[in-house]
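Hi D.,

Good news: the full-assembly prediction came through. Inputs first.
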Amino acid sequence: MTCDEAETLIQKELDGEELTQAERRALAAHLERCPRCSSLRTGLSRLVAAVKELPLPAAPEVDLARSAARALRRRRRRVRLAVGAGLAAAAAGLLLLLVLRPAGSRPARPPVGSTAPPPMASAPSAPTSAPPGAPGQPALNPEAALGWLETAWERAAARVAGTLPTVEVPLPPEETAWPDDLLQTADALRQLTREVGARILPFTTPKEETDRRNG
Amino acid sequence: MKQTPPGREERATDAQLVADTRNGNLDAFQQLVTRYQARLFGLCYRLLGRYHDAEDAAQEALLRAYRALDRYDPRRPFDRWLLTIAARCCVSMLRRRRSPEPQLERNRPAAEAHLPHNSPGPAAQAQAREFAQAVARAVAALPEPYRLPFVLFHQEEMTHEEIAQALDLPPGTVKSRVHRARKHLYRHLCDAGFLEEPL
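Then the structure:
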């Protein structure tokens, strides 16, 4: 057996593979007369044993289990907010188109109509108040918060698109414990609805506008 | 959100917790994480060498695992599956660092200058500690293409096949890199006077 062949068998052993009886015998015979391979085997074994004994680093101070669960909840929200963001982009584009319409094509002042189902209130006027009839509502209900945002975005978009006569959104749940990303989204929504209310209300659909012009 | 039934925590197997998690129970996932977070973080730290990077990679691995739970085969041990994902996350993070990948032959371990030459301590315990420290430094200084398979094989006890899957390499390449890493470390420790190599 050559030294290269012996080294192959030594590596095989360290890989955790079983040597055949013939391989074991041949290796033992080689190691007896080859101090270099014998030292290699001893050294590699010592090295591997030391590597396995190396201590694990101290566990992180952050509780991964808790932070992972939090991150997952955040990610769920983000996915849902992404839907809202898409609607917002569409709404913003439509808003721009409407703002750029000739002034004569828009009515002068907003008689705020309300065809949306209760419980609803106009978004700009009640962003932080508690929902009516729900004084004991928990401080934070992420699902409810998300639901409010999504509904608000959808309605804002629908308002801009002309499928709703006024921007109506349900009152948001208590916001003090909302995460920052939700609060930012809520603020953006309020700004958009204010824009919608100030410039476009009352919105009339193209058909209504045509009817109005035709008397 | 669903709650794990009282008393279920101690009896629940990984497979049960995975099933609960698939049904939307984040508490079950939290229990799974609690079981394996030390190993998960340990693997990430060994591969990345930086505490905060290891935390980030562990976190990312957990999120990836959560998203991939539908594809998890319950016949496979959950911890092996999770660690494979973690190794992949670490590889991604190492690639993002954009550090050049040095060749084993051309690079001396960076820690060599700090290793004592022919200076074993007087007490056997001190010698063992010194040897372990030298080994740790030498492993940490291995070039990545060799360090990763070596660490995953010898410290995380993953199989060549699992490592191949995690690192996206053929199993034969994994095996040969582990061999070369061993040999390189051996020579390095001989040069540093920690192991004897007859002329």
